[in-house]
Structures are given as C-alpha cells and as structure tokens.
Amino acid sequence: RRLAPLNEDNGRFLLLAALIAAYLSAGATVFSALESPSEADAQLRWNRTLHNFSRIFNISLPELRAFLRSYEAAMAAGIRVDALRPRWDFPGAFYFVGTVVSTIGFGMTTPATVAGKVFLIIYGLFGCAGTILFFNLFLERIISLLAFIMKACYERQLRRSGLLPPNFRRGSAVSGVGSLVGWKPSVYHVMLILGIFAIALSCCASAMYTAVEGWNYVDSLYYCFVTFSTIGFGDLVSNQNAVYQHQGLYRFGNFMFILMGVCCIYSLFNVISIVIKQILNWVLKKFECRCCPKCHKSSTRLSRRNAITPGARLRRHNVTRDTEGQYDSDTEGRRLSGEMISMRELTASSKVSLAILQKQLSETANGYPRNVCINTRQNGFSAGVGALAIMNNRLAETSDSR
C-alpha cells in the first residue's frame, strides 16, 4: 500500500518535531555547560568532607554511608530536622491534591501506602481531566473578555477617526459597517496582554514569598515560574513551615496566586503555541515543499476537491435546500436528470455560501453563538479540539492560517 503524501499538517508536525529535538539538544548543551562544573565541585567537596568526618570521629565509611542512606529515606518521607507542619493533615492533604490535579507535582509529599497509591491513580485520572477542562474554559472566557475590551477600544478608535457613526450601537447593523465585518482580536495583542498580566502576577507573588518565606527575589521568581508552568521541581516549596504570621491569610493568598498563575500561564502557553504554529506555516510556505514533489500533486488534488462534478450534485442538493428553502423546477429537473449543473444553481450556491460566511464573521466579531451548521465531508474534529480550536475560532491570524 502506498503511503499518504506529505500534506501541510504532516509537514508542520515533522518540522515541529525536528525543531523540538534541536531545542532539547541546545538546552541540554547549555545546562550541561552551566551546571556540570558546579556539580563536580560539589561532589569533590562532599567526598572531602565525608573522609574528614570519618577520620576525625573514627567512624568507618560504610557505617557512615548507611547512616546517610537512612537520613535520605527520612527526607523522602517528609521528616526534617527543623519543625515542619504535618504533611497529611487536611490543609496539607488539600495542598497535595491541588498539586496532583494541576499536574504541578512538587514531590515533597507522596503517598506511602499501597491503598494511597492506588487511590491516587484513580483520583488523578478524573482530577487531571477535569482540571484541564477548567483551564480550557478559563482560556475561552479570558479570550472573550479580552476580545470584548479590544473591540470596544477599536470602535472608540473608529469613532474618533470618523469611520463609525456616533450613534452606532453594539449588535445593531454590524454588517452595514464595513470596518467591523469579520473583525477579530489580534493574537499578538492577546499574547502581549497575557504576558504583561503574567509578569505582574509573578512579581506580586514573588514579593509575597520573599517577605513570608525569606527567599531572595530571584528564587521567588524562579519558584513562581516553575509552579505556574506546572513544572514543579520541588526544590522550593511554599507554605511548608510549621507557623507563619497571619497563617490563614498567607495560605489563602498562596492558593489564589497559584490558581491564577497556573490559569494565566496556561492561556499564555496556548497563545504562544499558536504563534509557533504560524511560524511553522511561514517556514513551510518558504520551503514550498521542494523536498517532496508529491506535495504539489496533493495540493492540486485538494484544490480541486470543491470543484462541481456530476457526482456531487445530489449531496449539494440537501445542503442548499436547507439554506434556501426550495429550487425552481428548471434547476431541480437539471439536477435529477444527470446533466451538468446549471449557471443558475451555481449562482444560488455562491450566494448561500457568501451569506453563511458573512453571518459567521458577524457573530464571531460580536461574541454571538455560532448556530450555523454546514454539512461537510469532514468529521467532527475538522475545526480542531481543545485550546487550539478556541484560539482558531476567536483570534484573527489563526483563522487565516488554517
């Protein structure tokens, strides 16, 4: 069986995979160059300290290493030399399940019993799925809010420039104003707003952690990014001391900062992914698929898919009858007689498609629900799934790239 030709989606996927592999290799090279000397120096200092301690206190190295292994096991179980709050009381357990469903996973608390590990598998399966759905719904609403604000600013700008009537009201005669037909917010403006909000939120949270936890400001910023991006290394974890000043207020502020930060960074990551997708489309367009001649044949076949042929007449009849209501007898006779499509039917079909397109653009620009349903040969996932579908429907540049 012949393999499918390399279309645009497959080309984009392969190009992204190659770029990610190169990005991982470059990151590994940089981190290895930065952290490897420090790790080697720390290992040398530790070996020197270990031998000196064994010699001074007359303790054999095997006994000392066995003691240190027991200490490492105690550290993994959450036991510290300094007094810490209980890990598995209700506030500690609530903090743990929050890091589980948000996929942060600090690792400072883990279930030790078999029953706890089994329950975590079941609990995390539904919890993580529900949290991802919550993040997608948050993304949809934050994009809608930003679109509403940006559209209001755009209308105000049009009024000042005289392109919009002073008595224009939102939702009335939108199709009559040429400057607002099909208007959507720019993905770059949305990315800028979300980036500014994420930076401001991280700076405020870092100030709180610096004052309460005693970290320096750079470590606080580092903790905010690692936590908000759900990386969750666990080398820095907030709210772990036994007692804080204004402990209830700090716990509430810590929870709210983490919740808002994760939602904001998730939305920002999705917008950045759309920009990366546009860059990939631009690169593919520059390449023009010269490495694979089959792409030209595939694109030619795809461009002729919507051509009017005798075999597609009956399928088009159902769609057009639902939208226009009825045909005249001449057109109906031609469709059922096996002849080629007439110019009258071609004109009517073009008018219907244009009307549906204008209605979709108007409803999208004004935030109305899109109730237009068109029967196509594509499946239900043709418009995208999840966050990408939300961005494609609500932002301008993404719709042009599909």
TrEMBL record:
GO BP annotations listed: stabilization of membrane potential
Regions that span the bilayer: 12-34, 93-114, 120-150, 187-208, 220-237, 249-269
Compartments reported by the entry: Cell membrane
Pfam family, one: Ion_trans_2
Keyword entries, A-Z: Cell membrane, Ion channel, Ion transport, Membrane, Metal-binding, Potassium, Potassium channel, Potassium transport, Transmembrane, Transmembrane helix, Transport, Voltage-gated channel
Catalytic activity line of the entry: K(+)(in) = K(+)(out)
Domain Potassium channel: 85-142, 198-277
InterPro entries: 2pore_dom_K_chnl, 2pore_dom_K_chnl_THIK, K_chnl_dom
GO terms for MF: metal ion binding; outward rectifier potassium channel activity; potassium ion leak channel activity
UniProt membrane topology term: Multi-pass membrane protein
One GO term describing the cellular component: monoatomic ion channel complex
Domain of life: Eukaryota
Family annotation (Gene3D superfamilies): 1.10.287.70
Family: Belongs to the two pore domain potassium channel (TC 1.A.1.8) family.
Name of the protein in question: KCNKC protein
Record gene name: Kcnk12
